[in-house]
Amino acid sequence: MRLSRDWLGDYVALSDLSDEELASRFTEIGHAVDAMERHGDDTVFDLEITTNRVDAMSHLGMARELAAALGRDLQMSLLPAERAEGPGSVSIRIDAPQMCSRYTGKVIRGVTIRPSPEKIRRRLEAAGLRPINNVVDVTNYVMLALGHPLHGFDLDKLAGAAIIVRAGNRGETIKSLDGEVRRIDPETVVIADAKHSVALGGIMGGAQSEIGQATRNVLLECAWFEPSVIRRTARRLGMKTDASYRFERRVDPNDTVAAVELAARLIVESAGGTPEPVLDLVAAEHRPLTLRLRAARLAEASAGVVGIGYALDLFRRIGFEAEQVADGIEVSVPAFRGDIHEEMDLIEEVLRFFGLDKVPSSLPRLTTGDARPNAIGETEDEVRRILTGCGLTEVVNYSFIRPEQNALFSNEKPLDITNALSENITSMRLSLLPGLLETVVFNRSYGTRDGALFEVGRTYHQGVREAHRAALVLYGTLGTHWGEAKRAVDFFDVKGIVEQVAAKLHVELAFAPAGAPWLRPGKGAAARHGDRTVATLGFLAPEVLQHFGIKGEVAAAEVDLEALRGATGQWKMAPVARFPGVPMILALTHGGDVDYGRLIEMIRSLEVPYLHDVGLRDRYVPEGADEVVKTTLGMWYQAFDRSLTQEEVSRIHQELAARIAGLLPVKVLGSGLKT
């Protein structure tokens, strides 16, 4: 907002202040100075005025701020006194009071259109506006002076000498002053004469009733329009004008008569003519808001340095009506301050003028409130950390998906969305995997062929129940290190990640074949703890991949975080072993009905001395179902009080091999030191 120092001086004495001092004062009361430049004998300040302070977007409004800040009187003598209404030669009717609550008009007959006086032209140019003629320039001049936009019509171009404020008709058009034909709808407020629309209310006038060189009779308009109506219309039409900018932010509804009278006086001074009585039609009154500012609340907000007496004096200086009451002051907010709504706004106003830099700073008090433990939330965060550490990338997807995607992963009836954003996306998700697969499709469309993704979130089920889940997908190839050859994702990659999550949370899992409908037959597993399934994992079924249009294999897993949390064991600390361990291997052959999980579970149940860990090292499953499976297990023997000898470990290991061969239908091919 460009403001003229010379113009401000009409309303408040500033002669004793330098430009730099005035700029500093602007900044102190919250109006930062973006630029300051000379314009002839004048200085123009370009101020950064917050959008809610439409009252300060005028010379009178900013002068009011300066007068209060400097402790000086506001000079109101230049403003005309409101004149009595009387019968006029133009009829005014408001048919859309929800769009326009007040319309003020005044007719001036017998004007002569010519260039504006030098003072008006100079001040408009300083504010960044181009002078046009002595009538149009006055409407712009009064807007910059008082903050309320006005418009002038050529009265002789209005049909029926009538003004009707109404909603637009569907299909109606108007040619605006910028030469563009605008389409009107019922959400647009228009100013019309007896036959057709002549202006877009609150935005721009129409070309048909434009003031020109031949104009002799003028109708001045100053109205109050509902801000939301102007905002929507301006956005729809792509029009941002000085008028719409102010109307969108709520101008003063009670200064229309003063604005019209000032404009009429200036027009008569420069263009001659005879003014008629003002016509003021009020469809809805705007009553002032009354708020109470408590002395205790002000003292608390200002660290006790601002008293209620200062606030009382300040509000009276900035145009508020204020009276002292028992616990503070009662304030009547004037109509031009539409940004003041509650007690805290009053406090901010006081501190703004007092100086925020003068208020002692202190850290806010912190209280625990009713903080409660969030066990499942902690589990979610921990799982995120673990999966990120495993090299996966987290994604976040919508909780609503297509109904047919739910059917691929569950037989459960999903929850439907009554107010869906799209007619296709109408169900709450029963699994996190559909969203992850949509992400795979998206990434591949941009050329990312390999990936490892996960999501932690909730699924939604009948009975208003939410389930906490984590899901992951691996696709393409792995092995990006310069010394590691790339290979296709396999089952043990996704299984290892699930095992890592369980191990970090101290949960022991047992794996068994799973027949979930979304898994490829013979390529899936269920991870259980006791009788509860913690995770389901494996390669996705061909029909699932086909539905999403994905070529190639995708390994996936979905983890029930509530089951995982319920299975979390106690965390026990153990000393770091001071003595070296001994690795051993155990090679076995067996039928396809003996899975390696059963082998490991049996070995652990035997309580073998010094056996610290056992796991799968290699496994070969031939093509034929009747072929012999070859499994190699890796074992780690270690003592915490001494170094084990090779002979001692070999004896224990051979005894273990013999016991396994006697307890399970397996054949020991070899056992010994791991190489």
Spatial order of the strands forming the largest sheet: 19-22-23-29-28-27-26
The 3D shape can be described as elongated
- Determine Rg (CA atoms, Å): 40 Å
Major sheet attributes: 7 strands, mixed
- Count of DSSP-assigned helices: 19
How many angstroms does the end-to-end distance come to? 81 Å
Please provide the count of β strands.
33
Strand content: 25-35%
Uncertain residue segments: none
Proportion in helices: 25-40%
The average pLDDT value, as a whole number, equals: 91
Instruction: Classify the secondary structure makeup into a structural class.
Output: alpha+beta
Word description of this protein:
- There is one protein chain.
- The chain contains 19 helices and 33 strands.
- It has about 675 residues and is of the alpha+beta class.
- Strands 19-22-23-29-28-27-26 form a seven-stranded mixed beta sheet, with helices on both faces.
- The model has no long low-confidence stretch (mean pLDDT about 90).
Secondary structure elements and their pairing?
Elements: E1 2-4, H1 5-8, H2 19-28, E2 32-39, E3 42-48, H3 59-70, E4 91-94, E5 100-109, H4 118-126, H5 136-146, E6 151-154, E7 162-167, E8 173-175, E9 181-183, E10 189-192, E11 197-200, E12 204-205, E13 217-225, H6 227-237, H7 242-247, H8 256-271, E14 274-275, E15 279-282, E16 289-294, H9 295-301, H10 308-317, E17 321-325, E18 328-333, H11 343-354, H12 375-389, E19 393-394, E20 400-401, H13 403-409, E21 427-428, H14 433-445, E22 451-461, E23 465-475, E24 477-478, E25 487-488, H15 491-504, E26 510-513, E27 519-529, E28 532-540, H16 542-548, E29 554-560, H17 561-567, E30 582-590, H18 596-605, E31 611-620, E32 629-637, H19 646-663, E33 666-673
Parallel strand pairs: 4-7, 19-22
Antiparallel strand pairs: 1-3, 2-3, 5-13, 5-14, 5-15, 6-13, 7-10, 8-9, 10-11, 11-12, 16-18, 17-18, 20-21, 22-23, 23-29, 24-25, 26-27, 27-28, 28-29, 30-32, 30-33, 31-32
Helix pairs in contact: 4-5, 5-8, 12-17
